[in-house]
């Protein structure tokens, strides 16, 4: 009974709907890792897994999956049928790499990789550098402002828009669509959140279908044209797969970058010695600093998996049909893997963080995210060396995709 009471006490500290927990989750994570590293959390209906070794292993374990529909019906898996009113969102989500498993995932990743190549990403460097410089120059002209709204958000959206070939006059549509769709990845989204996600999914999908038709008729040098052309032994992406891929590239490609930029600068302002160190050696430290900022305040705090076949973890049996919450934010602060993990060390070299995931779902856009972050931080360090915080920021209510409302700075 005492052990059960302890587990209940520890899991009570994990409250993803609490603004206090969202702002300061790391003490609760430390307790979970020490006292209940594998434990069922009744409010979310999930098994919480908090240690690095376990999270890393389960990301690669094929007994788990992002979906279960490649092996089971909803009824067989003990899950309700999706709400028909949400069909547009589910269709969009279920045809993207993030939520596919097995042969479908392998096939689409192979085809997308033919278009979204390392060479294409490397070729974007001048564009990313130019865009980052222009955004920072705008912040300088204004004498400061909200770093997230003026630099962190516009940069990855502009890069993805440029890469996909979106007309400049339509790019203002992308961020609202993405924000409404990704809100559905939070725990227990509201009916209003679902309604907005469905509307955004419908509008974005129709817009992309028009662009795909245009590129079929008149190919260009953009990624949509490359996706249209991608083929392997006669196999090609369907129109829905191309739509879902483009939406995933936007959503995943900018959420992590936006939050790593905002969360990272907030971390630097709270760690003045490390910020001074980075300003003194920007070229030498920037590569490792980007990795450390992604580890220290992880933009995607939790990633979910379904248990397809019963597993045993740390002496605990987790049945088929269960849902596991892999706590990335906790794993990236595990002292068993990272010495002195709560210390921000921009020169940390042994830094195998799992911010981009692992296994077959390792983030396809990781090289692009690293490029954007390096150029964004670099432009701010070079052009705004006296950047200062104006006021302590507040966190957005979301926990899974965790970021700041705004970050007010002055030059």
Describe this protein with a few key phrases.
three-stranded antiparallel beta sheet; single chain; 53% helix; 9% strand; 411 residues; 18 helices; five-stranded mixed beta sheet; Cytochrome p450; alpha+beta
Quick structural gist:
This protein has 18 helices and twelve strands.
Q: What do these coordinates show?
A:
The protein is built from 18 helices and 12 strands. With 411 residues, the protein is of the alpha+beta class. The chain has one domain (2-410): Orthogonal Bundle (Cytochrome p450). The protein is globular and about 60 Å long. Residues 1-5 have low confidence and may be disordered.
Q: Main beta sheet: strand number and arrangement? A: 5 strands, mixed
* pLDDT < 50 stretches: 1-5
By CATH, the architecture is named Orthogonal Bundle
**Count of alpha and pi helical runs:** 18
CATH superfamily: Cytochrome P450
Q: Tally the beta strands.
A: 12
Topology of this structure?
Layout: H1 2-13, H2 19-23, H3 26-35, E1 38-41, E2 46-49, H4 52-59, E3 64-65, H5 87-94, H6 102-115, H7 118-123, H8 125-141, E4 144-146, H9 147-152, H10 154-164, H11 174-182, H12 191-217, H13 223-229, E5 231-232, E6 235-236, H14 239-270, H15 272-280, H16 282-296, E7 302-307, E8 311-313, E9 316-318, E10 323-327, H17 328-331, H18 366-383, E11 388-389, E12 408-410
Parallel strand pairs: 2-10
Antiparallel strand pairs: 1-2, 3-7, 4-12, 5-6, 7-10, 8-9, 11-12
């Amino acid at each position: 009974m005492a052990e059960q009471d302890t587990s209940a006490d520890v899991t009570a500290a994990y409250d993803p709907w609490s603004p206090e927990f969202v702002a300061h989750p790391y003490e609760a994570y430390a307790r979970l890792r020490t006292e209940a590293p594998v434990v069922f959390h009744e409010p979310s209906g999930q098994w919480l897994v908090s240690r690095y070794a376990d999270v890393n292993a389960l990301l690669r374990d094929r007994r788990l999956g992002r979906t279960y529909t490649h092996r089971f019906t909803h009824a067989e898996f003990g899950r309700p049928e999706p709400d028909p009113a949400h069909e547009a969102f589910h269709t969009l989500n279920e045809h993207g790499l993030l939520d596919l498993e097995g042969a479908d995932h392998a096939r689409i990743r192979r085809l997308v990789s033919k278009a979204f190549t390392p060479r294409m990403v490397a070729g974007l460097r001048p564009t990313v550098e130019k865009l980052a410089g222009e955004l920072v120059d705008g912040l300088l002209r204004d004498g400061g402002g909200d770093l997230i709204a003026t630099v962190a958000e516009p940069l990855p959206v502009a890069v993805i828009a440029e890469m996909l070939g979106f007309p400049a006059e339509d790019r203002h549509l992308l961020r609202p669509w993405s924000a409404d769709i990704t809100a559905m990845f939070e725990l227990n989204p509201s009916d209003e959140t679902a309604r907005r996600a469905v509307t955004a999914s419908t509008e974005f999908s129709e817009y992309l279908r028009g662009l795909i038709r245009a590129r079929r008729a008149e190919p260009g040098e953009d990624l949509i044209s490359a996706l249209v052309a991608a083929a392997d032994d006669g196999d090609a992406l369907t129109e829905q797969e191309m739509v879902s891929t483009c939406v995933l590239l936007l959503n995943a490609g900018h959420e992590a970058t936006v939050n790593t930029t905002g969360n990272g600068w907030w971390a630097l302002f709270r760690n003045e010695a490390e910020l001074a160190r980075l300003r003194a050696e920007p070229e030498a430290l920037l590569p490792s600093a980007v990795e450390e900022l992604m580890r220290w305040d992880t933009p995607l705090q939790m990633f979910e998996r379904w248990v397809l076949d019963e597993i045993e973890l740390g002496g605990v049996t987790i049945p088929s049909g269960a849902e596991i919450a892999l706590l990335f934010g906790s794993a990236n602060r595990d002292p068993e893997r990272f010495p002195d993990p709560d210390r921000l060390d921009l020169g940390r070299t042994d830094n195998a963080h799992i911010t981009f995931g692992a296994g077959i779902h390792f983030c396809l856009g990781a090289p692009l995210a690293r490029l954007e972050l390096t150029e964004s931080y670099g432009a701010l360090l070079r052009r705004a060396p006296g950047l200062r915080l104006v006021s302590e920021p507040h966190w957005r209510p979301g926990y899974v995709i965790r970021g700041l409302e705004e970050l007010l700075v002055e030059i």
